[in-house]
Design goal:
Helices cover about 0% and strands about 55% of the residues. Strands 2, 4, 5, 6, 9, 10 and 11 form a seven-stranded mixed beta sheet that branches. It has a four-stranded antiparallel beta sheet with strand order 1-3-8-7, with no helix packed on it. A hairpin with a 2-residue loop joins strand 9 and strand 10.
Length: about 120
């Protein structure tokens, strides 16, 4: 089992910045994948914002490239998402994500979600 606890988020004006944190109950370096997803208002799907797989390369959604940066602190078992130059279309509930390899395959874990609202 992996617990993920998010913090951060809130209301920001267009062009502003916000940072999200996600504390994991296990070493993030041992996880198969970690990342951030976003669920836009009125949408059922969670879409990937940034994800780091076992190769250590972080991949970003085209819509956030150059504006969002995902990072991690192995000593704190915490991953971060720094969001700059925010746009109204970045509004949504942000979820951190982790995948762990188990004997039966892969288990997926999600944070509780945090609201990000970009509005003037």
């Amino acid at each position: 089992q992996v617990q993920l606890v998010e913090s951060g988020g809130g209301l920001v004006q267009p062009g502003g910045s916000l940072g999200l944190s996600c504390a994991a109950s296990v070493s993030i370096s041992r996880l198969k994948a970690v990342g951030w997803y976003r669920q836009a208002p009125g949408k059922d799907e969670r879409q990937v914002v940034a994800v780091t797989l076992g190769d250590g390369i972080t991949r970003y959604a085209d819509s956030v490239k150059g504006r969002f940066t995902m990072s991690g602190d192995n000593a704190k078992n915490t991953m971060y998402l720094q969001m700059n130059n925010l746009k109204p279309e970045d509004t949504g509930v942000y979820y951190c994500y982790a995948a762990q390899v188990t004997a039966s395959g892969n288990d997926d874990y999600w944070g509780q979600g945090t609201q990000v609202t970009v509005s003037s």
